[in-house]
Design brief:
Length: about 575
């Protein structure tokens, strides 16, 4: 939205004075609306305030509009007629009398206020101009009765009241404590407007003591409304004055219309009144958005899920997922894969043949492929134990969350959505892209030794067979406890022992290398699962928190830049 302060005024309503500068205030409102919309909080009322501000800033600010608001029979029209010295607004015993807003304005401002009054819904014969001595900068509206039996009367009041610059609340000794006035209107508007007054009409019917008691009672109630609102828009309650439209201006005991006339004629800069009303409306609109988001004005947002609860839920979910991934078996597979590679490279010809058979039979893929084993993690268990801690944490936050964001949290608490997100997180975590099955430069050396041993074994075996068949003479070796042993047999045993020792050395070394790799692989998978669960399990909640932080920042900006004028 474009601030009205920088927009050209609408045709036919050129401002007589420079426009009211509210750019920082309006910028804060725009930011709050955007953040609230991202949260899913209804923003229609705040957007209406923004549109009204744009429209109001386009009208002249040399005069402001004050409305007489009150219930049936309190004498709003009579007061206006007494001020004007003429029958401006119809007044009679028939109730309700005022069906449409009636305006009385200074004749000097009639032309330039025409557009503003039309925007307020007051046109034609409902606009009365007067010389208005002493009231040159005030246009007065007599609104329909707010407690009228005609429903459209109250609707008109509720529609026009947010656009009014100042209010005179009119009541009488019979209706000053009326619930409609206090609960539906004063409670909402007293904290939001700087320029307003409470008038008790028909005060001539009260004694001096009764009048003062009534005034104190009203002032106490109004002060309570301001305190309950707890807002910086105003720190004091509106003044209360006693009037009587049937008495002279001076009145008996000062209860005529003189005090009201003085209040209306007071030298108040119209721009300040308009600015005060707009800033109050903006602050109230932003405050409503903050409340819907569970935020307090001028305070950093409190997390929806406490850090301890969040950490515990992530730990429980991670532990449940790691049980399904089965890291101990993953490590055993890694060691087996390392041994298989060592056998193919360092076990000689027979070891190579054994490795081919091991691989072709499919056994290696089943028991010695840790990456494939990790990728098949879904086959080994359910995600329900991991879903429950996350769901419980979000459900706990949802119970304490304001209605404005409860729907978003409810979507996050859906077990299906949590299971889907956790599953994707584990898929990413187990897609290990680190080192492949490790190898060692020692293994080819051992493989060469094993090849030599195999050749020696073959030669020695032939020698032994020939010796057995031909019985040609050979030397003997004295072996303790065995005595004379033919040399071919001794060599065969030595070669077998050497091959066994080389195979054991290869196995031990491969096991040591494999266990180191297995630990690194398991640690990597564990870290990935912990990281991805921590960032995924509450990703939507984190998005909500980011949007709430943006709304809180906008609220603080409005509190700072939109000071009550």
């Amino acid at each position: 939205m474009t601030a009205a302060a920088s927009a050209p005024p609408a045709p036919g309503r050129q401002p007589a004075t420079p426009p009211i500068a509210l750019d920082p205030c309006l910028t804060g409102l725009d930011s709050a609306i955007a953040a609230a919309a991202a949260l899913g909080i209804p923003t229609a009322e705040a957007e209406a305030v923004r549109e009204d501000a744009d429209a109001r800033l386009g009208f002249p600010s040399d005069a402001y509009v004050v409305a007489f608001v009150g219930g049936t029979g309190v004498g709003k029209s009579s007061l206006l007629n007494a001020l004007a010295g003429d029958a401006v607004s119809p007044a009679s015993a028939r109730r309700p009398t005022t069906a449409r807003p009636v305006a009385w304005l200074p004749g000097a401002h009639q032309d330039e206020l025409a557009g503003l009054l039309a925007w307020l819904g007051v046109e034609g014969e409902d606009v009365r101009a007067s010389a208005g001595e002493g009231l040159n900068d005030v246009a007065i509206l007599d609104l329909p009765d707010l407690d009228s039996t005609a429903a459209d009367h109250r609707r008109r009041v509720e529609a026009i009241l947010p656009r009014i610059d100042a209010v005179v609340w009119v009541t009488d000794p019979e209706k000053y404590a009326d619930a409609v006035l206090h609960d539906d209107f004063l409670a909402a508007w007293v904290p939001r407007l700087d320029r307003q007054l409470v008038v008790v009409n028909k005060a001539d019917r009260l004694s001096v003591g009764q009048a003062e008691a009534l005034r104190r009672d009203l002032e106490r109630d109004l002060g309570r409304l301001v305190r309950v609102a707890g807002t910086r828009t105003r720190s004091t309650a509106p003044d209360v004055i006693l009037t009587s439209a049937t008495l002279t201006a001076a009145g008996e005991d000062g209860r005529g219309t003189a005090d009201l006339r003085r209040w209306l004629a007071a030298e108040v800069e119209s721009k300040a009144v308009v600015r005060a009303r707009l800033t109050a409306s903006i602050r109230a609109a932003v405050r409503g958005l903050l409340t819907a988001g569970g935020l307090a004005p001028d305070e950093d947002p409190r997390p929806l899920i406490a850090e301890a609860t969040r950490s515990r839920a992530v730990e429980d979910a991670t532990a449940a997922l790691l049980r399904v991934v089965d890291l101990p078996t993953l490590e055993r597979q890694a060691v087996a894969a390392t041994r298989a590679r060592a056998r193919s490279r360092g076990a000689g010809p027979l070891g190579g043949l054994t490795s081919l058979i091991y691989r072709w039979s499919g056994r290696q893929a089943r028991v010695a492929d840790p990456v494939a084993f990790a990728a098949r993690w879904r086959d080994r268990g359910s995600l329900t134990p991991a879903v429950e801690p996350i769901r419980a944490a979000v459900a706990e936050a949802m119970r304490a969350a304001p209605a404005g964001i409860r729907r978003r949290l409810a979507e996050r608490a859906d077990p299906g959505a949590i299971e889907r997100d956790l599953g994707r997180a584990v898929d990413r975590a187990v897609a290990v892209r680190g080192e492949s099955v490790p190898a060692s430069r020692v293994w080819p050396v051992l493989g060469l030794v094993q090849t030599v041993a195999s050749l020696l074994l073959a030669v020695t075996a032939i020698w032994v067979v020939l010796w057995v068949l031909v019985r040609f003479p050979v030397d003997s070796v004295v072996v303790p406890a065995l005595g004379q042993v033919p040399t071919p047999l001794v060599v065969l045993i030595d070669v077998l022992a050497a091959g066994y020792l080389v195979a054991r050395l290869l196995g031990l070394h491969a096991g040591w290398v494999g266990r180191r790799w297995a630990r690194r692989l398991a640690a990597e998978v564990r870290r990935n699962v912990e990281r991805d669960v921590a960032t995924t399990a509450f990703a939507e909640v984190d998005a909500i928190e980011t949007e709430r932080a943006a709304l809180a920042t906008a609220g603080m900006a409005v509190a700072r830049d939109c000071a009550f004028a």
